[in-house]
Amino acid sequence: MSLPPLSRRAMMRGAVLVGVGAATGGLHTLTSSPAHAAVARPTMHGTASWGARAPRTPVSLISGRPNKVIIHHTATANQTDYSLARAQSLARAVQNFHMDSNGWIDSGQQFTVSRGGHIMEGRHRSIETLNGGTSFVFGTHAGAQNNQSIGIENEGTYMTVGPTTALYNSLVNLVAYTCQQYAIPASQIYGHRDFMATACPGDVLYARLPQLRADVAARLAGSGGGFTAVVDNTTAGRFTASGNWGTSSFSTQRHGTDYRFADPVLASDTAWFKVNIPSAGTYQVDAWWAANAGYNSSTPYIVATSGGNQTIRMNQQINGGQWRNLGSFHLNAGDYNVVGVSRWTSAAGYVIADAVRVRN
Ligand SMILES: [Zn+2]
Predict the structure, then answer these.
(1) pLDDT for 297-335, tens place per residue?
(2) Where does the sequence pass through the membrane (predicted)?
(3) CA of 142 to the centre of ligand 1 (A)
Protein backbone atom coordinates (compact mmCIF):
# COMPACT_ATOMS: atom_id res chain seq x y z
CA MET A 1 0.00 0.00 0.00
CA SER A 2 1.14 3.53 0.11
CA LEU A 3 0.25 7.01 1.00
CA PRO A 4 -0.57 9.17 -2.03
CA PRO A 5 -0.19 9.12 -4.91
CA LEU A 6 -0.82 5.57 -5.75
CA SER A 7 -2.03 3.34 -8.51
CA ARG A 8 -3.21 0.76 -6.06
CA ARG A 9 -5.62 3.26 -4.67
CA ALA A 10 -7.79 3.07 -7.76
CA MET A 11 -7.76 -0.70 -7.67
CA MET A 12 -8.60 -0.80 -4.01
CA ARG A 13 -11.51 1.53 -4.49
CA GLY A 14 -13.04 -1.26 -6.53
CA ALA A 15 -12.72 -3.75 -3.73
CA VAL A 16 -16.29 -4.61 -2.93
CA LEU A 17 -17.28 -5.55 0.55
CA VAL A 18 -19.11 -8.81 0.23
CA GLY A 19 -21.44 -9.95 2.95
CA VAL A 20 -19.82 -11.58 5.90
CA GLY A 21 -21.83 -14.71 5.36
CA ALA A 22 -20.47 -15.21 1.88
CA ALA A 23 -16.93 -15.16 3.12
CA THR A 24 -17.44 -17.30 6.14
CA GLY A 25 -15.04 -20.15 6.37
CA GLY A 26 -16.86 -21.62 9.31
CA LEU A 27 -15.83 -21.70 12.91
CA HIS A 28 -12.88 -23.86 13.58
CA THR A 29 -11.41 -25.29 16.70
CA LEU A 30 -7.79 -24.44 17.29
CA THR A 31 -5.93 -27.64 17.84
CA SER A 32 -3.55 -27.38 20.71
CA SER A 33 0.05 -28.24 20.06
CA PRO A 34 1.67 -28.87 23.44
CA ALA A 35 4.76 -30.39 21.85
CA HIS A 36 6.45 -27.02 21.79
CA ALA A 37 6.31 -23.69 23.47
CA ALA A 38 3.75 -21.21 22.22
CA VAL A 39 4.83 -18.17 20.29
CA ALA A 40 4.69 -15.25 22.69
CA ARG A 41 2.13 -12.54 22.07
CA PRO A 42 4.07 -9.46 20.98
CA THR A 43 3.31 -6.00 22.31
CA MET A 44 0.66 -4.51 20.03
CA HIS A 45 -0.61 -0.96 20.35
CA GLY A 46 -4.37 -0.80 19.92
CA THR A 47 -6.37 1.83 18.08
CA ALA A 48 -7.22 3.61 21.35
CA SER A 49 -3.52 4.09 22.08
CA TRP A 50 -2.94 6.13 18.95
CA GLY A 51 -6.14 8.12 18.96
CA ALA A 52 -7.83 6.41 16.06
CA ARG A 53 -11.06 7.82 14.69
CA ALA A 54 -14.08 5.58 15.01
CA PRO A 55 -14.73 3.55 11.89
CA ARG A 56 -17.33 5.07 9.59
CA THR A 57 -19.42 1.95 9.94
CA PRO A 58 -18.76 -0.98 12.26
CA VAL A 59 -15.98 -3.22 10.99
CA SER A 60 -17.03 -6.59 9.61
CA LEU A 61 -15.77 -9.74 11.24
CA ILE A 62 -15.33 -12.95 9.33
CA SER A 63 -15.92 -16.16 11.23
CA GLY A 64 -13.14 -18.67 10.89
CA ARG A 65 -9.56 -17.97 10.12
CA PRO A 66 -7.62 -16.33 7.33
CA ASN A 67 -5.44 -18.62 5.24
CA LYS A 68 -2.55 -16.29 4.55
CA VAL A 69 -0.59 -13.23 5.63
CA ILE A 70 0.12 -10.49 3.09
CA ILE A 71 3.09 -8.17 3.50
CA HIS A 72 3.00 -4.53 2.39
CA HIS A 73 5.14 -1.45 2.64
CA THR A 74 3.63 1.97 3.28
CA ALA A 75 5.73 3.59 0.52
CA THR A 76 6.43 6.43 2.90
CA ALA A 77 9.88 7.87 3.61
CA ASN A 78 12.50 5.72 5.31
CA GLN A 79 12.63 8.16 8.18
CA THR A 80 14.83 7.71 11.24
CA ASP A 81 12.49 8.63 14.08
CA TYR A 82 12.07 5.23 15.72
CA SER A 83 9.85 6.42 18.57
CA LEU A 84 6.44 5.14 19.55
CA ALA A 85 5.11 8.68 19.01
CA ARG A 86 6.17 8.49 15.39
CA ALA A 87 4.50 5.09 14.98
CA GLN A 88 1.30 6.55 16.43
CA SER A 89 1.33 9.51 14.08
CA LEU A 90 1.94 7.19 11.13
CA ALA A 91 -1.05 5.10 12.19
CA ARG A 92 -3.20 8.23 12.23
CA ALA A 93 -1.91 9.39 8.85
CA VAL A 94 -2.62 6.04 7.25
CA GLN A 95 -6.10 5.93 8.73
CA ASN A 96 -6.85 9.46 7.57
CA PHE A 97 -5.67 8.64 4.07
CA HIS A 98 -7.66 5.45 3.89
CA MET A 99 -10.83 7.07 5.20
CA ASP A 100 -10.63 10.50 3.61
CA SER A 101 -8.94 9.81 0.29
CA ASN A 102 -9.82 6.19 -0.36
CA GLY A 103 -13.25 6.40 1.20
CA TRP A 104 -12.80 3.28 3.26
CA ILE A 105 -14.54 2.75 6.59
CA ASP A 106 -11.30 2.57 8.55
CA SER A 107 -7.62 1.76 8.10
CA GLY A 108 -7.35 -0.86 5.37
CA GLN A 109 -4.73 -3.10 6.95
CA GLN A 110 -4.99 -5.05 10.17
CA PHE A 111 -1.52 -4.11 11.43
CA THR A 112 1.38 -1.76 10.80
CA VAL A 113 4.98 -2.24 11.92
CA SER A 114 6.98 0.97 12.29
CA ARG A 115 10.65 1.42 11.49
CA GLY A 116 11.24 1.51 15.22
CA GLY A 117 9.64 -1.93 15.52
CA HIS A 118 6.38 -0.77 17.11
CA ILE A 119 3.40 -2.92 16.19
CA MET A 120 0.25 -0.85 15.68
CA GLU A 121 -3.30 -2.03 15.24
CA GLY A 122 -4.78 -0.80 11.97
CA ARG A 123 -8.44 -1.58 11.47
CA HIS A 124 -10.39 -1.70 14.73
CA ARG A 125 -10.78 -5.04 16.49
CA SER A 126 -7.77 -6.61 14.73
CA ILE A 127 -5.97 -7.33 18.01
CA GLU A 128 -9.03 -8.67 19.79
CA THR A 129 -9.84 -11.10 16.98
CA LEU A 130 -6.21 -12.15 16.55
CA ASN A 131 -5.97 -13.01 20.23
CA GLY A 132 -9.21 -14.94 19.96
CA GLY A 133 -8.07 -16.92 16.94
CA THR A 134 -11.53 -17.83 15.71
CA SER A 135 -12.46 -14.82 13.60
CA PHE A 136 -10.74 -11.94 11.88
CA VAL A 137 -11.39 -8.44 10.69
CA PHE A 138 -12.41 -7.94 7.09
CA GLY A 139 -9.77 -5.52 5.89
CA THR A 140 -9.12 -3.62 2.68
CA HIS A 141 -5.58 -4.19 1.51
CA ALA A 142 -5.36 -6.81 -1.21
CA GLY A 143 -8.49 -6.96 -3.34
CA ALA A 144 -9.90 -10.45 -3.67
CA GLN A 145 -7.65 -11.62 -0.83
CA ASN A 146 -9.32 -9.34 1.70
CA ASN A 147 -11.74 -11.99 2.90
CA GLN A 148 -9.03 -14.56 3.56
CA SER A 149 -5.90 -12.74 4.66
CA ILE A 150 -4.28 -10.57 7.29
CA GLY A 151 -2.55 -7.50 5.86
CA ILE A 152 0.55 -6.08 7.51
CA GLU A 153 1.93 -2.72 6.49
CA ASN A 154 5.61 -2.02 7.07
CA GLU A 155 6.63 1.60 7.40
CA GLY A 156 8.95 2.70 4.63
CA THR A 157 9.81 2.12 0.98
CA TYR A 158 11.75 -1.05 0.30
CA MET A 159 12.51 -0.97 -3.41
CA THR A 160 16.28 -0.52 -3.01
CA VAL A 161 16.96 -0.92 0.70
CA GLY A 162 15.73 -3.30 3.35
CA PRO A 163 13.82 -2.51 6.52
CA THR A 164 15.45 -1.71 9.84
CA THR A 165 16.47 -4.56 12.09
CA ALA A 166 13.89 -3.43 14.63
CA LEU A 167 11.14 -3.54 12.03
CA TYR A 168 12.17 -6.95 10.73
CA ASN A 169 12.40 -8.49 14.17
CA SER A 170 8.96 -7.18 15.14
CA LEU A 171 7.56 -8.38 11.82
CA VAL A 172 8.82 -11.89 12.59
CA ASN A 173 7.23 -11.71 16.03
CA LEU A 174 3.90 -10.47 14.69
CA VAL A 175 3.68 -12.87 11.74
CA ALA A 176 4.70 -15.84 13.89
CA TYR A 177 2.04 -14.98 16.44
CA THR A 178 -0.55 -14.48 13.68
CA CYS A 179 0.33 -17.81 12.08
CA GLN A 180 0.05 -19.52 15.43
CA GLN A 181 -3.30 -17.98 16.34
CA TYR A 182 -4.85 -18.79 12.98
CA ALA A 183 -2.94 -22.00 12.23
CA ILE A 184 -1.52 -20.49 9.06
CA PRO A 185 1.54 -22.35 7.72
CA ALA A 186 4.66 -20.21 7.31
CA SER A 187 4.55 -21.06 3.61
CA GLN A 188 1.43 -18.91 3.31
CA ILE A 189 3.22 -15.60 3.76
CA TYR A 190 2.99 -13.49 0.63
CA GLY A 191 3.75 -10.08 -0.75
CA HIS A 192 1.05 -7.76 -2.03
CA ARG A 193 2.49 -8.08 -5.55
CA ASP A 194 1.73 -11.79 -5.55
CA PHE A 195 -1.92 -10.88 -6.02
CA MET A 196 -2.11 -7.43 -7.56
CA ALA A 197 -0.22 -5.23 -10.01
CA THR A 198 1.83 -3.24 -7.54
CA ALA A 199 5.47 -2.75 -6.55
CA CYS A 200 4.44 -3.34 -2.94
CA PRO A 201 6.13 -4.45 -0.66
CA GLY A 202 9.23 -3.32 -2.59
CA ASP A 203 11.86 -5.43 -4.36
CA VAL A 204 14.11 -5.79 -1.34
CA LEU A 205 11.45 -6.63 1.21
CA TYR A 206 9.82 -8.99 -1.27
CA ALA A 207 13.17 -10.75 -1.74
CA ARG A 208 13.30 -11.26 2.02
CA LEU A 209 10.04 -13.15 2.18
CA PRO A 210 11.76 -16.56 1.92
CA GLN A 211 13.81 -15.58 4.96
CA LEU A 212 10.69 -14.36 6.73
CA ARG A 213 8.98 -17.68 6.04
CA ALA A 214 12.00 -19.53 7.40
CA ASP A 215 12.22 -17.37 10.51
CA VAL A 216 8.50 -17.74 11.18
CA ALA A 217 8.67 -21.49 10.60
CA ALA A 218 11.49 -21.75 13.11
CA ARG A 219 9.48 -19.80 15.64
CA LEU A 220 6.42 -21.97 15.09
CA ALA A 221 8.52 -25.10 15.47
CA GLY A 222 9.66 -23.86 18.84
CA SER A 223 13.30 -23.71 17.87
CA GLY A 224 13.39 -20.07 18.77
CA GLY A 225 13.00 -18.92 22.34
CA GLY A 226 11.52 -15.69 21.14
CA PHE A 227 14.47 -13.56 20.15
CA THR A 228 15.95 -13.28 16.70
CA ALA A 229 18.01 -10.39 15.41
CA VAL A 230 19.43 -10.19 11.92
CA VAL A 231 22.02 -7.55 11.12
CA ASP A 232 23.12 -7.00 7.55
CA ASN A 233 26.11 -4.94 6.48
CA THR A 234 23.57 -2.37 5.24
CA THR A 235 21.60 -2.22 8.48
CA ALA A 236 21.58 1.42 9.54
CA GLY A 237 23.63 2.13 12.64
CA ARG A 238 24.45 -1.52 13.25
CA PHE A 239 27.45 -2.17 11.05
CA THR A 240 30.83 -0.49 11.22
CA ALA A 241 33.92 -1.11 9.14
CA SER A 242 36.98 0.93 8.24
CA GLY A 243 37.53 2.38 4.79
CA ASN A 244 39.70 -0.64 3.99
CA TRP A 245 36.54 -2.65 3.49
CA GLY A 246 35.12 -2.52 -0.02
CA THR A 247 31.50 -3.05 -1.04
CA SER A 248 30.41 -5.59 -3.60
CA SER A 249 27.26 -7.07 -5.04
CA PHE A 250 29.24 -9.50 -7.22
CA SER A 251 27.87 -12.73 -5.77
CA THR A 252 24.19 -13.57 -5.95
CA GLN A 253 24.68 -15.42 -2.66
CA ARG A 254 24.77 -12.09 -0.84
CA HIS A 255 22.38 -11.31 1.99
CA GLY A 256 20.52 -8.13 1.06
CA THR A 257 21.79 -5.76 -1.54
CA ASP A 258 25.54 -6.15 -1.12
CA TYR A 259 28.37 -7.26 1.16
CA ARG A 260 31.71 -5.98 2.38
CA PHE A 261 35.11 -7.47 1.61
CA ALA A 262 38.73 -6.85 2.55
CA ASP A 263 42.15 -8.30 1.90
CA PRO A 264 43.55 -10.46 4.68
CA VAL A 265 46.27 -8.75 6.73
CA LEU A 266 47.99 -9.53 10.00
CA ALA A 267 45.98 -6.88 11.79
CA SER A 268 42.44 -7.10 13.08
CA ASP A 269 40.61 -4.13 11.46
CA THR A 270 37.39 -5.84 12.43
CA ALA A 271 34.05 -5.14 10.77
CA TRP A 272 31.44 -5.21 13.52
CA PHE A 273 27.77 -6.11 13.69
CA LYS A 274 25.93 -4.49 16.60
CA VAL A 275 23.04 -6.33 18.21
CA ASN A 276 20.73 -5.35 21.05
CA ILE A 277 20.82 -8.40 23.33
CA PRO A 278 17.65 -8.35 25.48
CA SER A 279 18.96 -10.29 28.46
CA ALA A 280 22.09 -12.12 29.52
CA GLY A 281 22.00 -15.74 28.45
CA THR A 282 22.98 -18.30 25.87
CA TYR A 283 22.42 -17.45 22.22
CA GLN A 284 22.99 -19.12 18.89
CA VAL A 285 25.09 -17.03 16.54
CA ASP A 286 24.90 -17.55 12.79
CA ALA A 287 26.73 -15.94 9.91
CA TRP A 288 25.82 -15.50 6.26
CA TRP A 289 28.37 -14.86 3.56
CA ALA A 290 28.62 -14.93 -0.18
CA ALA A 291 30.98 -17.81 -0.98
CA ASN A 292 33.50 -17.92 -3.80
CA ALA A 293 36.43 -20.23 -4.56
CA GLY A 294 38.67 -17.18 -4.39
CA TYR A 295 37.51 -15.99 -0.98
CA ASN A 296 39.16 -16.79 2.35
CA SER A 297 39.21 -20.36 3.65
CA SER A 298 39.87 -19.31 7.24
CA THR A 299 37.93 -16.15 7.98
CA PRO A 300 37.99 -15.19 11.67
CA TYR A 301 34.59 -14.40 13.15
CA ILE A 302 34.81 -12.80 16.56
CA VAL A 303 32.00 -13.20 19.08
CA ALA A 304 32.05 -10.84 22.06
CA THR A 305 30.93 -13.25 24.76
CA SER A 306 30.43 -12.48 28.43
CA GLY A 307 33.74 -14.24 29.02
CA GLY A 308 35.67 -12.29 26.39
CA ASN A 309 36.13 -12.47 22.65
CA GLN A 310 36.05 -15.87 21.00
CA THR A 311 37.29 -16.48 17.47
CA ILE A 312 35.63 -18.98 15.15
CA ARG A 313 37.13 -19.60 11.72
CA MET A 314 34.86 -20.26 8.77
CA ASN A 315 35.65 -21.31 5.19
CA GLN A 316 34.12 -18.68 2.95
CA GLN A 317 34.95 -20.62 -0.19
CA ILE A 318 31.89 -22.80 0.44
CA ASN A 319 28.48 -22.81 2.14
CA GLY A 320 27.50 -19.34 0.96
CA GLY A 321 24.03 -17.93 0.64
CA GLN A 322 22.69 -19.48 3.82
CA TRP A 323 22.90 -19.20 7.57
CA ARG A 324 25.82 -21.14 9.06
CA ASN A 325 26.03 -21.65 12.77
CA LEU A 326 29.10 -20.29 14.55
CA GLY A 327 28.09 -21.87 17.81
CA SER A 328 26.32 -21.20 21.07
CA PHE A 329 27.65 -18.40 23.26
CA HIS A 330 26.85 -16.72 26.56
CA LEU A 331 26.25 -13.05 25.87
CA ASN A 332 25.79 -10.06 28.16
CA ALA A 333 22.67 -7.93 27.86
CA GLY A 334 23.00 -4.61 26.06
CA ASP A 335 23.31 -2.98 22.68
CA TYR A 336 26.89 -3.55 21.56
CA ASN A 337 29.17 -4.99 18.89
CA VAL A 338 28.43 -8.68 19.28
CA VAL A 339 29.86 -10.28 16.13
CA GLY A 340 32.83 -9.17 14.05
CA VAL A 341 34.73 -10.29 10.99
CA SER A 342 38.47 -9.83 11.40
CA ARG A 343 40.99 -9.49 8.58
CA TRP A 344 43.64 -11.25 10.67
CA THR A 345 44.21 -14.49 8.80
CA SER A 346 47.17 -15.93 6.97
CA ALA A 347 44.94 -17.62 4.41
CA ALA A 348 44.58 -15.97 1.01
CA GLY A 349 41.50 -14.36 -0.48
CA TYR A 350 39.01 -11.74 0.57
CA VAL A 351 37.34 -12.00 3.95
CA ILE A 352 33.62 -11.29 3.67
CA ALA A 353 31.31 -9.45 6.09
CA ASP A 354 27.70 -9.83 4.97
CA ALA A 355 25.18 -10.60 7.72
CA VAL A 356 24.87 -12.17 11.16
CA ARG A 357 21.96 -13.53 13.14
CA VAL A 358 21.66 -13.92 16.90
CA ARG A 359 18.81 -15.98 18.35
CA ASN A 360 17.83 -17.97 21.37
ZN1 LIG B 1 0.59 -3.26 -0.46
Answers:
(1) 999 999 999 989 999 999 999 999 988 999 888 899 899
(2) none
(3) 7
